[in-house]
Design a protein that fits this description.
With 469 residues, the protein is an alpha/beta fold. Helix content is 44%, strand content 17%. The strands form 4 sheets. A 7-stranded mixed sheet has the order 3-11-10-9-8-4-7, sandwiched between helices. It is globular and about 85 Å long. The site of pyridoxal-5'-phosphate has 15 residues, from helix 9 and strand 9.
Length: 469
Amino acid sequence: MDRINILSTLPSTDEILYREDIKELLKEIPRNLVVRETRKVVSDLRGEILKMSEAEKSNYQIDIDQIVNEVINRSVKFTEMNLKRVVNATGVVLHTNLGRALISEEIKEKIWEVSSSYSTLEIDIATGKRGSRYDHVVELLKFITDAEDALVVNNNAAAVLLTLDTIAKNREVIVSRGELVEIGGAFRIPDVMEQSNARLVEIGTTNKTHFKDYANAITENTAALLKVHTSNYKIVGFTEEVALNELVKLGKDTNIPVIEDLGSGVLLDLTKYGITYEPTVQESIKAGVDIITFSGDKLLGASQAGIIIGKKCYIDKMKKNPLTRALRVDKLTLVALEATLRLYLNIDDAVFKIPTLRMITEDIKSITMRSEMLYNMLKKVSGKLTVSINDDYSQVGGGSLPLEKLPTKVIAITNSSITASKLEARLRGFRIPIITRIQDGKIILDVRTIDEKDYKVICEAIRSAIKEF
Ligand SMILES: *Cc1c(COP(=O)(O)O)cnc(C)c1O
């Protein structure tokens, strides 16, 4: 059949809409949506036909049933949620693309209660007057960190921006060349500086910055000394940085505030749980840093937020900055943050109740047991699968503790009739997507980031992925 002829046999939109199964579909799904999908399916097919070679065209016939099926599939898919849960089998605990920190099950009712009802968001219940949305977390943050005051904005990038805009607009900020950090998603310290109209004064070298580098760079235009925690990389070897307390002393002597971008926001001593030392928020307050910023959804384990704590005089100025209104947090963010911070009132419990902390501190014995459970379930899925348990390492991720290698157990899967990359794609395309990685031609599932309740889902996904072989 020649090109004109094939194209002329493409069905019209009406022809498809009058099909019995489409009429059924229209009982559930709005007509304008089905019409849109029908037009798209037909136009996609027209595009494919136009690209066909003469040989392909001569063998080709329009299959209206297939078109109808495609319309049904696409229409149904459109009505389903795009943003939905996945199973993270990557072993990366704070996976930014998969939503970073998981909210604790402990607090789910609180989130629903506050978001589905009117709330005390901005009312002072004692006086009936207008209150501040920030007050709900300020006392908690002060209690946990010993800071004088606190403010919460949308994320840590916003926290750094607001801090610099308030304190250093059109003035100079001194930063070590070893700390000009880039975080994923285009957060670069020099760019944030530019946004805030603060002038970056780079000092020292990549590997070494001395006290005298800071001291010599100070002019009457210096607005702040900025310390950035190199949370997603480490410079090792012949290195030197200025200790926080020395920097604080220099700031005090010269009357210049010290700002620290801490990144992860660790509120407890992780070394107690066998994790490499990571500076805590409390240590920075104790050292006398004037302003500290950190994320809510990294190691703190709450919602996406940027937390600013420190001296009241600076936080007061930030509250008056019009930018604060633009960077304002939503009640969903605040309720998750407040409820998570309350879990920190009992630190030993916090480690178990906050999923991020529970996952990074889970010991190898427990992981081994859990890997055996999943292994036994997978063995039963199909005799065609080759399954083994291997030693490996998980990562903390989210630009936190970059060198930390957490010993873990992974399940490696191969199937003789399907390639690893096909299997990986099918697991990813499952109703509840299973996110895995491939190593040496095998699918790897790291049990550290997999909840036991998802073992069944994984088995179901694998069963459906290999069933046609
Ligand atoms: C993660 C990080 C940021 C960015 O924080 P977000 O909450 O993702 O905006 C900024 N600075 C440092 C040092 C970080 O680790």
